[in-house]
Amino acid sequence: MTAPDADATTTGDPAPAGTPPSPARHLAEDDPYAPPAGEAGDGTPRERATPPAGEAGDGTPRERATPPPAFPDAPVPAFHRTAEDADGRSTQARLLDRLLGARRVRLDLRRRDRFWGWFGTIVVTLLAAATRLYQLGQPHKLVFDETYYVKDGFTLGELGYEAQWPDEPNPAFEAGDVLTYLDKAAYVVHPPVGKWMIWLGMEAGGGATSAFAWRLASAVVGILAVFLLVRIARRLFSSSLMGVVAGLLLAVDGEAIVHSRTALLDQFLMLWVLVAFGCLVLDREQARRRLAARVAEIVDAGGTVVRYGPRIGFRWWRLAAGVSLGLACGTKWSGLWFVAVFGILTVLWDLAARRAAGVGRWWEDSLVVDAVPAFLTIVPTAVVVYVGSWWSWFANQGAYLRQWAAEHPGEGVTWLPDPLRSLVEYHRQMWDFHTGLSSDHPYASHPLGWIVQWRPTSFFWEKESPGQGTCPADAAEACARAVTSLGNPLLWLLAAFAIVATIWLGIRFRDWRAVAVLSGTVAGWLPWFAYAAPFSDRTIFTFYSIVFTPFVVLTLVYPMVVALERTEGNRAARARVVAVVVAVLVVIVAVSALFYPLWTGMQVPYSYWQNVMRLESWI
């Protein structure tokens, strides 16, 4: 089996027994420039397949046709011959195979794939709902940074801005006295989108007096993320079954479960990043379908794309990605890294598409007609959405620093209108806070250990003696309750090895999917090294890794997908791969069942907590 084209799936269907291989398929899947210099790929002299330079093949002037290549001996892609090749497929069909891969083209055509695509999605989404909604209101206490974001979200909905609270407000708030906030704006250091989402959950869940309502938005987002990951992975890997596997792994992972059951901002950042990635995957497919259709139209009319290719129109999914990335930045500033990485990713996909379609000057063509519009679609959209997410701050004169420009004439960015000048000053202060945050914290962790969850964050822990609190009086030992933001240890350990395997497989097979699954980890993990020793001493935590958890899952699934594809047609080898995949899934689910009580604040014997939390760094 030869290495696939950079933008084709790894393998195709084997030909039926006794059927000679199609030269056209071989050319389309292996070497786009395989035909001899003097032939069009089927033995026909090239001059017969190409109409005169001034005509489109039917005597009409050719609008998109280009002059002959500067080097007459340069090879022409195999599909620039006739409308149909030896096996009767059209130019567009052959282009789609090259640009999307035969697996992706066939995926929605088979009833079995459609059934598993939706049935499997529903099953793992229901599993995610069960693990996230069960006793969601326990513990009925503000755990970890819920102390900030729940109260900020509540006052944001009540007043239009985050308000200050009296000293030690949590006991009263937890008891249902939620109106003790002060009539004074609070200094907060994160944008408002995530807090608005927490407020929406409180409104839908019955109000701020309910811990279930505090966390409802996070739970819904966690369930939705599992649903989205199944659908994204299905398209990414051209496999309904492996899409379900990806969703299952996210449904049972501890990081995903804990963040779905606590009202922190990072869960919402993860959602918008995942939505943006899904939009770009859809955009990639739609753009390649358009490119295949328009290149085929040119070629079938007798023209060529030996210099430049066609435009493919406005990219609505790319615009949607820009909106999602703006909302990600409006949740936490670390969304900016995803704007940069995803922007580069979508441009690289376009470059590869034009090259695979046979466009002669593909790099120049793509930079002009794809890269520049990509920047103008994504970046300004994200900026506008981000600024728009501050609408309530603009609308309320009592918001923090809202009157700064009026109180400081001639200071700041003086050419901006006063509201924007005040917002810029606010952002300067936020920047100073984030770059100067270096206080000691017992659960601070270096990002090097995040990928194996070496030092997880304890959100809540409580030990009670028999007869104390909710611990039964007849209990044989003390009771413990914990909410520990610890990913499934086996899943994350295997994913750490899978990252190395994915890099190697991506290079060996020139597989675009490897770059895609790694992109989120690159954007969500690597930038934090700049804030850690030896470069900085900023206080950072392992729970930040929730934002790239879906990509960790995709990276773990990718080598499984490649192994299944590379053993297709070899029953014994494929059976071994399937057995290994099933065994890995079974053990991961078993580990999740073991840790589930410690992710959800369930009461367990103290010895159970001790036996499960085996590593000292986990405590």
From TrEMBL:
Enzyme class, broadest EC rank: transferase
Entry-linked InterPro entries: ArnT-like_N (IPR003342), PMT-like (IPR027005), PMT_4TMC (IPR032421)
Biased amino acid composition, Low complexity: 1-16
Organism this protein belongs to: Isoptericola peretonis
Membrane topology, record value: Multi-pass membrane protein
Similarity comment: family membership: Belongs to the glycosyltransferase 39 family.
Transmembrane segments: 115-134, 212-230, 237-258, 264-282, 334-353, 374-394, 490-507, 514-531, 543-564, 576-599
Statement: the UniProt record of this protein carries the keyword Ribonucleoprotein: no
Occurrences of domain ArnT-like N-terminal (ranges): 202-383
EC code(s) of this entry: 2.4.1.-
Name the record gives this protein: Polyprenol-phosphate-mannose--protein mannosyltransferase
Pathway stated in the Swiss-Prot or TrEMBL entry: Protein modification; protein glycosylation
Principal location listed in the UniProt entry: membrane
Keywords assigned by UniProt, alphabetized: Cell membrane, Glycosyltransferase, Membrane, Transferase, Transmembrane, Transmembrane helix
Subcellular location: Cell membrane; Endomembrane system
Summary of the function given for this chain in its UniProt record: Protein O-mannosyltransferase that catalyzes the transfer of a single mannose residue from a polyprenol phospho-mannosyl lipidic donor to the hydroxyl group of selected serine and threonine residues in acceptor proteins.
Region (Disordered): 1-89
